[in-house]
């Protein structure tokens, strides 16, 4: 049993990139799908697709590389089940001087930190990508 499925997803992506895999399979959930949608919109992954493997839904994430190196330099979990991290609309700051993003779960859905600032909403900071 996995206690933190989002952390498991991020670890699977990190491991697949270090092994230079083209894609990685992740157990599906709506939150994971929302996070992957933001990652795709921001250009950190090629795409993702939902599939059925042994009658269980899984997400296949197609990783993105540039000049033989992974596009994602670092991928870290911020808010964990044991310690939730929330930021108000004025407390969400740019990541790595604007070169990275934070994925935030808001009352209007999961979005990047830039979109959350534009919408004027805060929320739970799920992870940071740079």
Question: Which helices and strands, and how do they pair?
Answer:
Layout: H1 5-18, E1 23-27, H2 30-41, E2 45-53, E3 56-63, E4 65-66, E5 69-70, E6 75-77, E7 86-87, E8 101-106, E9 109-112, H3 113-119, E10 123-129
Question: Would you list the SSEs in sequence order as H and E?
Answer: HEHEEEEEEEEHE
Structural class: alpha+beta
Largest sheet: 5 strands, antiparallel
E-strand count: 10
Ends apart, CA distance between termini: 29 Å
The coarse overall form would be globular
Low-confidence stretches: none
Helix content: 25-40%
Radius of gyration: 15 Å
Total count of helical runs of at least 4 residues: 3
Report the β-strand fraction as a percent range. 35-45%
Verbal overview:
- With 130 residues, the chain is α+β, with helices and mostly antiparallel strands.
- The strands form three sheets. Strands 6, 7, 8, 9 and 10 form a five-stranded antiparallel β-sheet that branches. Strands 1-3-2 form a three-stranded antiparallel β-sheet. Strands 4-5 form a two-stranded antiparallel sheet.
- It has helices spanning 5-18, 30-41, 113-119; strands at 23-27, 45-53, 56-63, 65-66, 69-70, 75-77, 86-87, 101-106, 109-112, 123-129.
- The termini are far apart.
- The model has no long low-confidence stretch (mean pLDDT 95).
- A hairpin with a 2-residue loop joins strand 8 (101-106) and strand 9.
- The protein is built from three helices and ten strands; from the N terminus they run αβαββββββββαβ.
- The chain is globular and about 45 Å long.
């Amino acid at each position: 049993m996995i206690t933190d499925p989002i952390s498991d997803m991020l670890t699977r992506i990190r491991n697949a990139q270090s092994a230079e895999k083209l894609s990685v399979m992740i157990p599906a959930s709506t939150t994971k799908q929302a996070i992957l949608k933001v990652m795709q919109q921001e250009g950190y992954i090629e795409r993702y697709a939902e599939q059925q493997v042994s009658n269980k839904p899984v997400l296949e994430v197609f990783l993105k590389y540039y000049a033989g190196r992974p596009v994602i330099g670092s991928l870290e979990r911020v808010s964990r089940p044991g310690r939730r991290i929330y930021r108000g609309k004025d407390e969400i700051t740019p990541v790595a001087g604007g070169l990275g993003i934070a994925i935030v779960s808001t009352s209007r859905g999961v979005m990047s930190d830039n979109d959350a600032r534009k919408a004027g909403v805060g929320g739970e900071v799920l992870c940071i990508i740079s």
